[in-house]
Specification:
The protein has 339 residues and is an alpha/beta fold. It is built from 9 helices and 14 strands.
Length: 339
Amino acid sequence: MKPVRFAFAGFRHGHIMGLLAKVKASSEASLVAAFEADDATRRSLSEAGSVAFTHDSFERMLADVDCDVVAIGDVYARRGGMAIRALEAGKHVILDKPVCTSLTELATIEALAARKGLSVGCQLDMRAGATRQTLRRLLREGAIGEVLTLSFSGQHPLMLGTRPGWYFEPGMHGGTINDIAIHAVDAIPWMTGLEISEVVAARVWNGKTPQYPWFQDCAQLMLRLENGAGVLGDVSYLNPDRCGYAVRPYWRITVHGSEGMVETACGENTLYLATHADAKPREVAAEVTRKADYLDDFLSEIRGEPAQAELTTALVIRAARVALTVQRAAEEGATHIAL
């Protein structure tokens, strides 16, 4: 079977380098082109030997390059339009998150993919890793009974001065909930087996960057699951910069059920579990239950093997729609929005 040919479009966020590395390492994929319009980004990555650029025009790359997939990592506000152009050109697309910054763009992406039989992938990687896979297993096995509440803290460090400057340009970022919480709204149904049924409330605001009053560095949300369970989440940019992603609240997930509770966090090797039958809390070793990741799933779907894909086009679109709906609710002050 021939490798799937990838053309990369945009390198304005570092996450796309992770996908690039996976494509280069995969025997099922090949890199055939790379585009970047921003001179400084193109020069920096070229001088570092990280990317061999072939184009400085997205339209020319689409016209010139015989590829199967366009992988998009440009500024958030441009991603939706680029995905639409790639789909119109008959290419599958995979994006760093977020997929796009408007529900209108997402509807067009969904319609084009369905009409043309194309796949849409996303770098939603919370399904990978031993702790979250073990958390999923425990919840699906009923270790804490019926899930009744779930809280997560996906706080990030802001790192003002080193984070890409376009984040703080009006209209370029698209909202902190859409940016970060898309990971959670993808992972929660996967872990619990319960769909998100309602946006109860959400709030975004500027807390510590008055020089960029339009930037939402604080973001919180409240959701309802289909069984009535409640979800509370915080994805603010308030983690201390020097500690960065090493602090305990970084993607800490706590779930309480009818028979107990379980908790885990990014970077930990064990889960904290306590049930009504336990005299004291205990640690559960984290174990990998599935090695395939978002790229493996994307390639499986392209090859026409959807049964092997855990993260499908439909689930990517669903996660993006929920994240964008929560983001809009926060900006408009809307509550109790059915999904």
